[in-house]
Amino acid sequence: MSTAVLSPNMSVDGGAYKRKRSHSRSPDDIDGAPPASRRRSHSPPPKTHLDLPKVVDADPIRRAERERQLAVRMAAVELEKSEKPKDAVATQTDAKAEFAKLIGSRSGGVYMPPARLRALQAAASSDKSSPEYQRLSWDALRKSITGIVNRVNITNIKQVVPELFAENLIRGRGLFARSIMKAQAASLPFTPVFAALVAILNSKLPQVGELLLTRLISQFRRSFKRNDKIVCHSTTTFIAHLVNQAVAHEIIALQILVLLLERPTDDSIEIAVGFTREVGAYLAENSPKANATVFERFRAVLNEGSISHRVQYMIEVLMQVRKDKYKDNPILAEGLDLVDEDDQITHQIQLEEDLQVQEGLNIFKFDPKYVENEEKYKSIKAEILGDDSDEDEDGSEEDSEDGDEEAGKTQEAIEDRTETNLVNLRRVIYLTIMNALNYEEAVHKLLKVQIDEGQEIEMANMIIECCSQERSYSTFYGLIGERFCKLNRVWTECFEHAFGNYYTTIHRYETNRLRNIARFFGHLLATDSISWAVFECVKINEEDTTSSSRIFVKIMMGEMMESMGLKTLAERFKDEEVRRSCGAMFPMDVPKNTRFAINYFTSIGLGVVTEDMREYLQNAPKLIMEQRRAMLENESSSSSDSDSSTSDSSDSSESDSASESEPDTPPRRRRRSSTPPPRRRGRSDSRSPPPPRRGGVKPEPASPPSARNKPSNRRESPPPFRRGNGRDRSPSPMRRRDRSPYSPPPRPRHVRSRSPPPVKRDRDDGYDKRRRDDSRDRRRSPPPPRRSDRDRDEPPHMKRASSRDRGYDRRR
């Protein structure tokens, strides 16, 4: 490394700095007076040593040149380092220069990066009354007003107005007028919205509306003189809607129409027709005579024929619009009648008067009372908006926390009974399902929907409702429900709860919707997406079912049978858990309900699931008898204890009465013998009247000879068919015993009742005679009445006769 010493006395070209030699003093100077001040020689500045890199070069001349150039560059770098403190002062000077440029420019100057602008604002915020700060706030006001005006529309106008009042519209009324005029000229369909916004501001700040109307009239006059059709049309449209909003008086509209119709041309008539369509309804209501005059002028122009056919057709269309009473051009559009009539302020400005446009309000001007004017507008803003912004800004953190707590309490107290959120949620779910290509996409999107806790059932209900609205069932909805049920237990419970709700209200749905809902739940049950315990609410009997519920179960079972198969379905219903849940579907408590369920399931093709019910129905009589017997035994066992004491006393009294009645037995036997047994009396009624009960005995009629001549035939056993015929004619329970050949002969009561007891030799003949009579009477007599207990005790002589009859039969 070579070391070079750079001295300020060294010239740039490398030559040595030669000091000038001082002139020698003359003798006069030495002898003269000494100088007033001694000259001091200035010491040279300190030398700066630069470490230069060694230059290696074979050529010594070229090496020297390169070293010289390197030394110059290094010296320039050192000089820049020494001049850095001067740059800070220059930066401040540059900032002031930029502020000066901003102040002197009219439109805000060139574009400035946001970072640099924030730096300038921070530098200027120290003094709010400075021109720099006022200029920055002016630019911010201009941008804010322009942005608010550009985004206003019919839906957000109520939210935009407070934001607009938050800006200083008194200071920036020129900016507002310019921005809204530009926005209206760029988008004519939004003219009613801009007019409504101006009407709201005019009701609180009339100077804003007056300035805008003045500039619009001035612009119309300039454009009319320049024959600028486009600007003239946009300006007249804005003025027409301001007249409709009662910001401008209708006289200005009439003056404009007179001016346009005074010397008719195609362009003027076209502008007049458009202006009349917008303001015609208001003029017809508030100035009918003037409106009629205007249309007379239109008619005269039409009759003159000095205009083109296109414009003539436009006048004819305007006439038709007037006949239709401006139904397509109302005075105020729906949703834009925002100012009360008492708050409206109407400006009456003439077309020909001198107008103060106040173009100076569009540019920045320094305000020496800026802070004071800002405070005044804050008070006006608080009065308009109804809140005090100063208190909100100056309030402490504690006050803000208290306000948040109170706001939270008020929000908790508010209850939305309009179900707006629920309707919006259902709309989102419906649109999500309809826009999905397949069920996987639908489930993926539905899971992203924000659902509050407790509203999960709405998701299930909306899926089922969308399914029911289809013309035919789509497996798309069944797969959605299946995927939801298998994702989370919460969705499974929701669909199970929905099954109960829809089954109980299924009678409210038409057939097509009922079919879709039934197949949807059939799919969920067949795939085990929901538990079969939901069948607890299904009761198959005549009382608890309707036609709709039976159709629902039929279609649901059909869907399950198609998916699972009849054999698998029947086996599943035989499972113990499923049987406990489906007890009401297959009732086995009352035979009537069981029979109804069997017939129902058999009719829908599920007879295989009714085997248990059929077995129960076969064994039902035995079970019922056993139940009744057990019930009777319980009743008898409960009553036996109470009757045991009374039975002993009754037995003793009966035995005493029996012993006392033994001596009187023969008379009682004679009295009973006078009356024949009911059975014999019933058989003899067909041939002869019964004997009277009072003891009178009538002579026994003689039996016909044919009956007497055939005793042998009567002793033989009759053929079987005769027994059958006799059984058909008299269904007496004792008849079979009398006809049997092995039964004892009938008791001879008729003989005993009409004569004393017969002798022994005549006993057989009387028996044969009675046998013949009884065989005839057996076919014709009605069943005998039940014998009393007194007749059941046979007298002793009848018992003896019975034993003799038995001996006769043995002899035969």
UniProtKB/TrEMBL annotation:
Cite the record's Polar residues compositional bias ranges.
1-10
Please give the Gene Ontology molecular function terms for this protein. Answer: RNA binding
Q: Where is the composition biased (Acidic residues)?
A: 385-405, 651-663
Q: Which organism is it from?
A: Piloderma croceum (strain F 1598)
Q: Which family does it belong to?
A: Belongs to the CWC22 family.
Q: Which GO terms describe its biological process?
A: mRNA splicing, via spliceosome
Primary site of residence: nucleus
Q: Which Gene3D superfamilies match?
A: 1.25.40.180
Q: Where is the composition biased (Basic and acidic residues)?
A: 48-61, 759-777, 786-812
Q: Where are the transmembrane segments?
A: none
What function does the entry list? Answer: Involved in pre-mRNA splicing.
Provide the protein's localization. Answer: Nucleus
Q: Which InterPro entries has this protein been placed in?
A: ARM-type_fold, CWC22_splicing_factor, Initiation_fac_eIF4g_MI, MIF4G-like_typ-3
Compositional bias annotation for Basic residues: 668-682
User: Which UniProt keywords are given for this protein, alphabetically ordered?
Assistant: mRNA processing, mRNA splicing, Nucleus
Protein name according to UniProt: MI domain-containing protein
Question: Region entry Disordered: which residue ranges?
Answer: 1-61, 382-412, 631-812
Q: Name one GO cellular component term.
A: catalytic step 2 spliceosome
